[in-house]
Queue: 2 jobs
Job 1
Amino acid sequence: MIKYLKTADSEWYKQRIISIMICILAVFVILFVRLIYLQVIIGEELRRISLNNSIRLQSIDPPRGCVYDRKGKLLVDNRPSFDVSIILKDAEPVEQTIEKLSEYIQVSPSDLMSTIMNTRDFSSYKPILVKQDIGRNALAALEVHKHDLPGVGVKVNLRRNYITHQYAAHLIGYLSEINSDELKSGNYPGCRSGDLIGKFGAEKTYDNLLRGKRGGKQVEVNANGQVVRVLKTVASIPGHNIYLTLDQDVQMKSEELLEGVAGAVVAMEPTSGRILALASSPTFDQNAFVGGISRDKWASLISNPFRPMANRAIQGEYPPGSTYKIITALAGLEEGVIDEKTIFECPGFYRFGNRVYRCWKKGGHGKVEIIKALAESCDVFFYQLGQKLGVDRLAWYAKASGLGSATGIHLDHEASGLIPTAAWKQKRTGIPWQEGETLSLAIGQGFNLATPLQMAVFTSAIANGGKRYKPLIIDTIKTLDDRLLHEEAPKVIGKLPVSQHSLNLVKEGLWQVVNSEKGTARRIRLSRIQISGKTGTSQVISRKDDEQIAEENMAAHLKSHAWFVAYAPSDVPRIAVSVVVEHGEHGSGAAAPIAKEVIKTYLRKESTQYQIVTQKQRQEGSG
Amino acid sequence: MFDRRLVQYFDWGLLGLTVVIGCIGLATLYSAVTAETPSPQKVLFFKQLIWFAIAMAAMVASFMFNYKLLDRWSQPIYTICILLLICVLVFGKYVGGSKRWLILGPISIQPSELVKIAVIAVLARYYSKDAYTRGFTLRELIRPFILTMIPILLIVKQPDLGTAMLIVLIAGTMTVFVKIERRSFISLIVSSSIIIPMIWFFLKEYQKQRILVFLDPDRDPLGAGYHIIQSKIAIGSGMIGGKGFLKGTQNALSFLPEEHTDFIFSVLAEEWGFIGSIVLILLFLVLIFWGLNVAIACREPFGTILAVGITAMIFWQVFINIGMAMGLMPVVGVPLPFISYGGSSALTIAIGIGLLLNVSMRRFLLE
């Protein structure tokens, strides 16, 4: 075989190179022929097209998906907006055209010019937006004087429309122009500068579903920039519709009740985690963001000391106050530190070390067992219980109850709250844990922080027998033609590490909070609906034990925050509520009435609907 | 030490040709960046001038040493280039959705450009040893295959499909040039005609879509299809005499996002018409033939194969870029040698020409 192997020599290479040369010559002939075809044969035609610059691309923006509440009530849609733009190249003579245009749309020519000159990626061949959302009259004027206004075009664009102003603003969120970082991030494929994207709330979380996909047209235009012929069209794909878990009436009621105060309401279905209402006050108008928020408006929103842009329901971290006693109680029962018969004496204060820890009730509660301690929110009972439990056992139960970590709601910027442990404090401050701090902790003061949402999830877990559900804000996602794309299923994210027995004791205590003679929230008792709950008052500043300042005399911003967590009906809970009123002083006075109204709104509606259904059935049965 | 014959044999023709094409490139680039509205990016022109100066220096450096050293040094150079490609993936700068650039102080370079030379050198080294007229068998082709695939995979990852495809074409040309043994060739054809449809089967829908658009730009009338139409209008509207320097109207429309790189030929064809375009194409043809002639004149396999590889690189870039602008080819970003804006591209081509000069001026050493 070896003898057949001839070494490649220069002559052999030369032959092969010559073949390559022939191939290359052939390829260049193709280029040559194509060049003749384009420049000589159809050159004239292409020259004509190029002189008109007549092929343009027009984008077709997809309609953004609508947002509905759980009952299919429309909350957010799109309305047509007539936007005026100008193509300078077609607008000759430009100054004259602009002068005329300014008259019809009532913008001074100098303003128009500056808008045009300040446009990003300015090009005299591309339409430049000069005014959005002109009125019907201006539109009519433009239509009539169309031939006087070369290069001026009116395009119907869809504009986001938040049907009820300020409604669920923090949950639904708003749109705003995409910024360069977002463009670069690669999370917004198909978007380009100037596009509106969801920046906050559900609009942001579900942006990729709501947005749809842009289409476009290749069109031929005449010298005036008017479309002569559509060459090719790629249809846009509309965004999907989302159905929120919100109940519009409950949400509205919650917002109404919060009006004038800073605070938050979270209402959820305890058996599924579906959010019925998520309100934060003060709020803002989402419509102000549509079409670009003005600098002044934005500045006033941002500089407002009450921070209307913050979603207090998920971002607000407050000491849970006495609502935390539920956890202390559960921990005590589970750890065997107390049982239902354990009695502590409350003389109105508790001496620990050389400090005196006061009960909110000056005269004391006398002999107190667990149910009474919860119902009357006896501080001294929980001081003693907390002391016996210690900070770390308490922290373990709090964490197992979902405090100190985000719930995983599909909204940005959720705060995780804080559950301190001895190690945490040592690490953070370098100072070892003081046992006295455990006492404050046991009644929900001190380093503890929780969000209204976390407390709502926790309260739901108490109500449903121990399951912690992930809070859900959407029910379903459907396509434009009503095809179901996705259905959000309830998801258990944890279980309370407590026995049914302990839970029942605590539930009895929570029932008595509202329904017993001395319950701290007895004023919200309803005859037809049984509510269970727990009040809370969380101090904004720590008061020294010997300072006796009446709340009424304190500056507003130093007043305590008011908490109330509740569920109803007590036997088969269908709604759980968590309310915070900043500087509302007392949970019983400021927060509990709000919870009552929210519960009433939801359950009354449910029962009327139930009645209607049964009536119908009866009629159908008889008929 | 210095041999007078080096000067005597210096390939002034090749150098002259290069300079002429370079000047045409600068003029076209000047037009492309000036006409751009609203903000002429003249700075790009001056940047390119600086790059040309650097490229010239690199070209001189590439013919100063005896190219046979490259035979010995090709492996380390290849390894360095691969490391650079890995660096790109790790530290690279994201521009327009892909990571292609390495930032070195004031300049950014595209290692995927330089890697072309490294692959050519390393393949020339392999193919020049134990080369027989019966060609290379499949088993002998495994090593060059791996050497080619490593940079390609790294470049696809960036992703820069144009450059990856170019390396495939260059390596393919070199391999066909040194001949694949007949039975191996047949089995290669057969197996690839089975495997390629199978790969198609496994691709995701969007990947298929991308390939279909690549092959038929009309499927994407708002993207690639639109660019092709505008490019054809630009070229055709130049007609025979052209619209005149700096008078192109299509160019001013900024219809193409990459008019100073991928679609630079359209700018030239619009302004200089058929006459200008055909001159440029013929100049490229002469350059390519010149390169092949250098390969023939070199009486030693490494030099011959190296020259063929470099010429193949120039040929494919010219053909793909001009073919794409005229709507003959898929839309893929391949720079036109010496004409498109781009420092790394100019540098790579200059090194290539430098090596051709190197091979050419040392041909006497074997005679």
Job 2
Amino acid sequence: MDTTILDALQNARRAKRPVALATNLRSGAQKLIFKDGTEGPLCLDVDMIIGMQDMLARDESGTLQTGAGPVFVQVHNPPPRLIVVGAVHIADPLARMGAMAGFGVTLIDPRRAFATSQRFEDYAVSTEWPDDAMAELKPDTRSAIVTLTHDPKIDDPALDAALKSSAFYIGALGSRKTHAARLARLKELGHDDAALARIRGPVGLDIGALSPAEIAVSIVAQIVQARRKP
Amino acid sequence: MTEDVLDQAEAWRKEGRNVALATVVTTWGSSPRPIGSQLAVDGEGKFLGSVSGGCIEGAVIKEALAAIGDGKPRLLDFGVTNEQAWEVGLACGGKVQVFVEKLG
């Protein structure tokens, strides 16, 4: 990989701009594929480039056969996101395990004293109200959202925004009783049963988790399951 | 917090070290690391990341050092049908193809 390609690839990754690296496995010649253009010396015909842009959109790496030999396409999409609402105790192991599993973690908590705690200094933190924070974050099909506060003032607007998004995972911490009351409130906001069924509550796989770290394990496991084995 | 092999390889390169990058490009059957998994190797054989559960790393590092030496990319095949695979022992029984290139 020459320096020009490496620099351009790393710049795109840092800017969270989706990019695929195409490598001819015989010659080693390379080209960067963006959704709106290409960069680099590897010669590819237009149909091939369109096919690679399609792979980029599908987040799927693989090898394509071309007249000049096999070309490996490695997709570098920005990491999937984990949005945690509530900078409470469980948020600490959840953010850490989420980051280990490859997620870009953002914490939302308008209660400044919680959000600015030293234990969250490694993560992106928003002290906006969840409706404003979510409007800014624009969760998409590669986003997971977990609410942890139990406080309707904070969790409800976050879940309302989550249900209006295409997030692949929505989880809400709270007992069955808390969850039933929460669903009733969200229903009043206009969400039907099918929409409400998207919320995992009580959150996490049922592994009998008790401690904050164990609960984080159960939540991260459920998020991985939703992503890899939907 | 996630170990990003490409970032580390770039950092090594900026320190003036020679670096080769190995990438899993094809897998068949039960392969321990998915397509796109990477291993970075520096000129002294120090490495980071993985392209298997540890079975073929030794052979890949050897080829990575050779790629650093001559600057040429390499496409390596490991699997049960491959003589070398018996030697390096791809215990899972899968097959993998690994592309090795010098960085920068």
